[in-house]
Write a structure and sequence with these properties.
Layout: E1 8-13, H1 14-17, H2 20-25, E2 35-40, H3 48-56, E3 61-66, H4 77-94, E4 102-106, H5 112-129, H6 133-143
Parallel strand pairs: 1-2, 1-3, 3-4
Length: 144
């Protein structure tokens, strides 16, 4: 499936993707063009409905980036996000969609290279899984 270029949505905690110097300069992280980054005030604000809506809106895969465990500025936001990602994976599994389409990563702002590595890793993971079945259903509906 070399022709397949997966569309990925990344919900990222503001504190996990910006270091203190980035806050003053507001430099955006460079991520692959097929990764849409949505900045959140905390990964704990990422609700299950957002994850599912991203898939429904055309994403082939979705991931959440939260602070490393034990380092959340809001104490447990990243732990809530982790639970929501696991719950969403269970929902996908129950309806026959690959649960690996949704992932959680814990990174700190100082791990910029790791952020880019995670984006590339997620693209490859989804490329191996294939296009989202949600998108296939939408294509079939639009043809009729």
């Amino acid at each position: 499936m070399k022709d397949f270029h997966p569309q990925i949505t990344a919900f990222c905690c503001h504190n996990a993707i910006y270091s203190e110097e980035d806050l003053t300069e507001r430099r955006r992280l460079q991520s692959p063009s097929n990764v849409k980054v949505i900045e959140m005030p905390c990964s704990g604000k990422t609700e299950v409905i957002y994850l599912l809506k991203a898939l429904e809106s055309g994403a082939d895969g979705v991931y959440v980036v939260g602070c490393p465990e034990g380092e959340c500025r809001f104490l447990e936001g990243n732990l809530r996000a982790k639970k929501r990602v696991k719950y969403t994976q269970q929902l996908l599994d129950e309806i026959g969609i690959e649960k690996d389409r949704i992932q959680m990563y814990n990174l700190s702002a100082s791990m910029k290279e790791k952020f880019q590595k995670v984006a590339t890793e997620m693209i490859e993971k989804i490329r191996n899984i294939g296009p989202s079945p949600v998108n296939k259903v939408k294509e079939q509906e639009s043809e009729t």
